[in-house]
Amino acid sequence: MNAGAGAEALGADFEAVGAIGRAAAGGGWSRPGYGAEECRAIDWLGGRARAAGLEVRLDGAGNLIARLDGQGGPAGPAVTMGSHLDTVANGGAFDGVVGVLCALDVLRRQAGARAAGAPALPLALELVCFRDEEGRFGALTGSRAMTGALAPDAALHRRDADGVTLAEAMAGAGLDPGRLGAARRPAGAIAAFLEVHIEQGRILEDAGIPLGLVTAIAGQRRISVRFEGAADHAGAAPMAARRDAFAAAARFADRFREMVIARGGGRARGTIGIVEVAPNLGNVIPAEVRLGLELRDEDEDRLADLARATAALAAEAAAALGAAATVRPRHATPPVAMAAAPRAALAAAARAEGLATMPLLSGAPPDAGILGAVVPAAMLFVPSRGGRSHCPEEWSDRPGIEGAARVLGRAAAALAGGGDG
Ligand SMILES: [Zn+2]
Fold this sequence. Notes:
By secondary structure, the chain is an alpha/beta fold. The protein has helices at 3-18, 36-51, 97-115, 141-147, 152-156, 166-172, 203-207, 245-263, 300-320, 340-352, 367-371, 398-415, and strands spanning 55-58, 64-68, 78-84, 124-130, 190-198, 211-217, 219-228, 269-278, 288-297, 324-333, 336-337, 357-362, 377-382.
């Protein structure tokens, strides 16, 4: 294949997607899930895939599936690749887009080879563009619908920040909400799933390594911690006699951070992102502080250990300041390990392309984390300049993306039974 022609097509694809949902000069991109801009991006993608000779359809969730049949015909299993074209509000030009366009590039090259007389591979190759990855309606709507991890009836009643339900948004996008459940793929339809994504961190850039091989998608624990003390006069109450809920929360916050560093094996992340103080007045000792925190790690046992240590620290900090602590687990997502076979295929493909890789943990839950819970999945990271993401400054270099597309193509062909691609 002519690498130059492929790179040119990929460049044109980035320009075309970058023209959809762009804010005024200097701003970022806004393509909310099931909104008009995401619809335009999906329409554009469908046209591009059809022009390359691929079979294109939308599933019940509106996910776009473009397919090149293998020897098993239209019902045969596929090696599926993809990501998303929706964005957060005022987001960047690469998150999700990189994975969709690399997959399109792979399928376009394969379709070109097929048209030139190459035989069909044993397995089909597919591109999937998932809807609403960024979570206008609760995160990863399209991929969860595809794996059956979404309960359609409950999901359709979910509202976005403006009160619009998923059912209304789907209807507005020309989709039938009644078909949401039909997006679920039968067992065995997807033999393996591969996703290229931007790192959204700066480990690759700092190491000067072009590709990250994701080992696992971090699991999450969200926990709320409430410290209860007693309101009193800020001027009159002696220091030693106070039951200051904020003093307890502050002691806890400092030790929580140290605990995550000490017990987290360098991998775990712990963040206190929500702080509510009551009564939140300058001359009253805080009676109550509510903290919302989250823990992330690739190891379920370590997450459990960190959660236990968090509860112990909260009790210790409260006792030291005469307050009481209540710890409530809010939400847990288990870690998802990437599968050995597709990981090995990506590693071998990178070696064949002469590109160095390093193992990385994915701290954000991508579509590959949802797919990886039910099919063998693996993920490739490309560097994000300065680690910036979900902002207009998001940037990944074109040659790095082209390298990832070549690695993806080799790995997908190998997994589809076509040798080392
Ligand atoms: Zn993404």
